[in-house]
Design brief:
The complex is a heterodimer of chains A (568) and B (163). By secondary structure, chain A is an alpha/beta fold. Chain A has 22 helices and 20 strands. Chain B has 163 residues and is an alpha+beta fold. The chains are: A alpha/beta (568), B alpha+beta (163). The structure holds flavin-adenine dinucleotide, thiamine diphosphate and magnesium ion.
């Protein structure tokens, strides 16, 4: 049967089992919106800004193992979406973003609301397409979903001109997809796997460093088993939190710029490092030559060959999907007669215990001022460590990462690579829609929340009972901290003057707002908020405005050149 | 070090800009780049001359392979290969220079492919170095215009770049 391009588009989404599309209408997508209207299977969520549509789709994807879908109009719709797309790109999140385009005959004429969507997004998508013929829509969308989800995941943009969405073509959804130029390697090379196991068995001071690839591959279970068998300490990157249980005694915390002392010292002093789905980011290993200044063997598992030996040379590289490769390691390890060197590891754990005793995440609580760390610890307690926690970007993000001990994957949802302020609230919308009954908390700052505060309106429309945990320090705190440390206390434009009354603002949007000014009220307020299961509650915590995030490895320094809280 | 990289890519609109965009976004050098369809009209072959440390070249190869439109990549510099570049040079050719320019073109196995009262246009193929040498060998003041394709390369013998 012949269908219009718009009908085909919606049929494809149905075929892909898409539950939610996050979007915002406009001229170039009117035909597609018309078809959305005529059916019920694919539900549309109307956001208040296209950036939020993409972040919401992103939060949906991160908290499930599905592809997030966003729909925006041409011109300003696409440009507004770019920050969301880049955010997903840097964290390798599978999204399909459908954008409207001006009619094909107008392309290139500086037509009304025309931008070169494919050109603008090219550097921040895994791939993108301009569909010039309605008969290509189905095969293109099939490819888009496949590309987004397979291999190293990422956002894919499909740009559909208005006339293409209105013209008719024969519809049949392809059952399979084959892209001759794209064949991601999933299985690891068995020879390399054996070499890796041998190296790990001979290690005296082994260490496992696991990142976002573990989450993306849904391999937390396999990784945990491997770490237990190896008896090695395990650290997670910011993106990997929850990939190994934080409450496990082999967990040494997050590593990197704001990582624990034991994690960073372990990285610097281990003799065999197993890197699993992690990309040796500059926020993670600090100064590269300092990192390389010690001899250690590195085994690197990553599905993207370009992630391997990009910043740090490795000794054994295993290209493949974490779940597959780690299962392979487990198999070889279990069938080996040799066991990890117990005596050597005893000394190693003694050394780690010593680093741990530095207690690098300790902070001085106060009865006068609300300490942000205390709020997160209490949040963990009240939610039994079982909430989905989204975050914005800044100090509050680091405290959430450090003090909310994630035991499960896909519970910690934040923008690590791009560091996008404004991510937290719309991401929480996607999470809440994906998990209707679940507890969803958005940890944010008074700066970040204002970058997408309009989404409180979307939350009202769709009854999303998110709990907004605003750590309101009246500062762009992360910026202020750098100015304190590295710019002679010159707080250039990092003070937030004229803040809104967030309680009234929440109420204006039809939600509940609670102001919390005393440490003794923190727990009660959180309890009250989470008891209101059907309501969005905005908690405005007035926190200590001068608190800093520790430990800190200053930019350009090595992992062992760390500033601890008591150093100051 | 100088590397010459050959690749096959889908003959799709936008494929070229994905490659050139990759080089500028990641601050890789491009000395020259050329591209044209192959005997299989669905594919184009591109030759890129670049330079960088071994680490950078490794990343260039990996990043090129990662582009969805890129079918296969070969660093020709890794083995025996042949390189050729085409140059057209328009020179002022009057009086005694006419004879001299013809002689130089012959020595470099070039051909005069267009003649006017005042000019010759000389066609020359060879390695980059040979074309440079020719330009050095003739009187610089006589050169009116040059156009070069950048290097094309192919592996020797059984080194074949195919799908
Ligand atoms: C204010 C701020 C401070 C920060 N401080 C820190 C810090 O202290 N510590 C820290 O760790 N980070 C920090 N970050 C985050 C940092 O910028 C990076 O985003 C993060 O470290 C990258 O994590 P990752 O290495 O796990 O890689 P990801 O970005 O999660 O990449 C995943 C890797 O796994 C691979 N992969 C994907 N899927 C698979 C699969 N199925 N199988 C195998 N491999 C796969 C990918 O190819 C990629 O190489 C901070 C960010 C901000 C905004
Ligand atoms: C869109 C965007 N603009 C600027 C920045 C730079 N930046 C990083 S953290 C930060 C301050 C965030 O302030 P707030 O949300 O109040 O969080 P706090 O650090 O105070 O907890 C800024 C401005 C950014 N990450 N994102
Ligand atoms: Mg703040």
């Amino acid at each position: 049967m012949e269908l219009t391009g718009a009908e085909i588009t919606i049929r494809c989404l149905q075929e892909e089992g898409v539950e939610y599309v996050f979007g915002y209408p406009g001229g170039a997508v009117l035909f597609i919106y018309d078809e959305l209207f005529k059916q019920e299977q694919v539900k549309h969520v109307l956001v208040r800004h296209e950036q939020a549509a993409v972040h919401a789709a992103d939060g949906y994807a991160r908290s499930t193992d599905k592809v997030g879908v966003a729909l925006v109009t041409s011109g300003p719709g696409v440009t507004n979406a770019v920050t969301g797309i880049a955010t997903a790109y840097l964290d390798s999140i599978p999204l399909v973003v459908i954008s409207g385009q001006v009619p094909t005959s107008f392309i290139g004429e500086d037509a009304f609301q025309e931008v070169d969507a494919v050109g603008i997004t090219r550097p921040c998508v895994k791939h993108n397409f301009l569909v010039k013929d309605p008969k290509d829509i189905a095969s293109t969308l099939k490819k888009a979903f496949y590309l987004a989800k397979s291999g190293r995941p990422g956002p894919v943009l499909v740009d559909i001109p208005k006339d293409v969405s209105n013209q008719k073509a024969e519809f049949s959804y392809p059952a399979t997809v084959n892209i001759r130029s794209y064949n991601p390697q999933v299985q690891g090379d068995i020879g390399q796997i054996k070499r890796a196991v041998q190296m790990l068995l001979e290690a005296k001071r082994p260490m496992v460093y696991a990142g976002g690839g573990v989450i993306l591959s849904d391999a937390a279970k396999q990784l945990t088993e491997l770490v237990h068998l190896l008896g090695a300490p395990c650290t997670n990157t910011l993106m990997g939190l929850g990939g190994f249980p934080a409450s496990d005694k082999q967990f040494v915390g997050m590593l990197g710029m704001h990582g624990t002392y034991e994690a960073n010292m372990g990285m610097q002093n281990c003799d065999v490092l197993l890197a699993v789905g992690a990309r040796f980011d500059d926020r993670v290993i600090g100064n590269v030559s300092h990192f390389n200044s010690v001899p250690r063997k590195i085994i690197h598992i990553d599905i993207d060959p370009a992630s391997i030996s990009k910043r740090v040379k490795v000794d054994v590289s295993i290209v493949g999907d974490v779940a597959h490769v780690v299962s392979g390691l487990l198999e070889v390890l279990k069938s080996s007669k040799q066991k990890p060197d117990a005596t050597a590891q005893k000394d190693w754990w003694k050394q780690i215990a010593e680093w741990r005793s530095a207690n690098s995440l300790s902070y001085k609580n106060s009865s006068e001022l609300i300490k942000p760390q205390y709020v997160i610890e209490t949040l963990h307690k009240i939610t039994h460590g079982d909430a989905f926690v989204t975050s914005d970007v800044g100090q509050h993000q680091m405290w959430a990462a450090q003090y909310y001990k994630f035991d499960q994957p896909r519970r910690w949802i934040n923008s690590g690579g791009l560091g996008t302020m404004g991510f937290g609230l719309p991401a929480a919308m996607g999470v809440q829609l994906a998990h209707p009954g679940a507890t969803v908390a958005c940890v944010t700052g008074e700066g970040s929340i204002q970058m997408n505060i309009q989404e409180l309106s979307t939350c009202k429309q769709y009854d999303l009972p998110i709990k907004v945990i605003a750590l309101n320090n009246r500062y762009l705190g992360m910026v202020r901290q750098w100015q304190e440390f590295f710019h002679g206390n010159r707080y250039s434009h990092s003070y937030m003057d004229a803040l809104p009354d967030f309680v009234k603002l929440a109420e204006a949007y039809g939600h509940v707002g609670i102001l919390v000014e005393k440490p003794s009220d923190v727990e009660g307020a959180l309890q009250e908020a989470f008891a209101r299961k059907d309501k969005l509650v905005f908690l405005d915590f007035r926190t200590d405005s001068t608190e800093n995030v520790y430990p800190m490895v200053p930019g350009g320094k090595g992992l062992s050149e760390v500033i601890l809280a008591e150093d100051l | 070090m100088r590397h010459i990289i050959s690749l096959l890519m889908e003959n799709e609109s936008g494929a070229l800009s994905r490659v050139s965009g990759l080089f500028s976004a990641r601050a890789y050098n491009i000395e020259s780049l050329n591209v044209a369809p192959t005997e299989d009209p669905t594919m184009s072959r591109m030759t890129i001359v670049t330079s960088g440390s071994d680490d950078v070249i490794e990343q260039i190869n990996k990043q090129l392979n990662k582009l969805v439109d890129v079918v296969t990549v070969m660093d020709l510099t890794d083995g025996d290969h042949i390189e050729r570049e085409l140059m057209l040079v328009k020179v002022r050719a009057v009086g005694n220079d006419r004879e001299e320019l013809k002689r130089m073109a012959d020595i470099f196995r070039g051909r005069v492919i267009d003649v006017s009262d005042n000019t010759y246009t000389i066609e020359l193929t060879g390695t980059e170095l040979k074309l440079d040498r020719f330009l050095q060998a003739i009187d610089h003041a006589l050169i009116l215009e040059t156009v070069r394709t950048g290097a094309s390369g192919i592996g020797r013998g059984d080194r074949i770049l195919k799908l």
